[in-house]
Amino acid sequence: MLFDSHAHLNFEDFESDWRQIIDDCQKNGIRMINVGSQFETSRKAVEIAGQYGEGVYAAVGLHPIHVEGSSFHPEKFDVEKYKELIESSQEVVAIGETGLDFFHDDKNFKNQRKVFVQHIELANEFDLPLIVHARNSKDSSKNAYEEILTILRGRKPGVKGVIHCFGGTLKEAKEFIRLGFHVGFTGVITFPKTGDLAEIVRNIPLDRILAETDCPYLAPQPVRGERNLPQYVKFVLEKIAEIRRIDYNEIVKQTSQNTINLFKL
Question: What's the pTM value of the predicted model, to 2 decimals?
Fold first, then answer.
């Protein structure tokens, strides 16, 4: 069993063929969590999960680039509507994608922080893990990872989750793990130039690593430039196995179990 812990088959990119993709995944033992970025994509993730049940799950949340004050299709984070969505389905296994994004919008920190804290409170209320997005500013002057760590340290203990598509430092990764979080890696780790990601994969506990595609984005190197698919999580897993010098099947088993443990599946 392979597990893509962060997919977006609920996005418009898959409007015409998400059913065929999921059917193929189920035939080949691939499970997935479809992650919302706005209310409608969150609702769609819940709808898809409801049609399939075991093996296809949903996360609901408002991506930081879409919070009020943003220029990227902003919308209000209506907590009550999200609560209704969570209560409507047993397949909702996480809150997110939430967090801070200084790359696309480094002037909206106040609103991003407010909404992120609301997501944390929602996760605590429903005892669900967070799926956290973090991206530093283009000139690296604003560090989203450090800001998120500061916010998490200041909240009541108990909330867990994953730092999605990790792009921070080894020190930051270890601090997230100390706080009870997992670290997610996408096809970026397969690219020729990945900075310190290989060192991070090599030096954090194996039981805190999740494999993700972030499809339709970030297709791994063997299919780079194509629309990414949940099936391509195998390339991420192969690269993790290569970096860790561990058998591929062991990596598949461990990362799948990590996902099951975090999301209580």
Answer: 0.97
Strand order through the sheet with 130-135: 2-7, 30-35, 56-60, 92-101, 130-135, 161-163, 181-185, 209-211
Q: SS3 of 253, please? A: helix
| CB proximity list for 122: less than 8 A, separation 6 or greater | 79, 82, 83, 86, 95, 128
Provide the domain count of the chain. 1
Could you read off the pLDDT of 76-112 as tens digits, one per residue?
Answer: 999 999 999 999 999 999 999 999 999 988 789 999 9
pLDDT per position as a tens digit, 203-249: 999 999 999 999 999 999 999 999 999 999 999 999 999 999 999 99
The closest of 240, 172, 233, 179 to 206, measured between CA atoms, is 240
**Following DSSP, what letter does each residue of 195-235 receive, concatenated?**
TTHHHHHHHS-GGGEEE---TTS---GGGTTSPP-GGGHHH
- Residue 214: give its domain's CATH number: 3.20.20.140
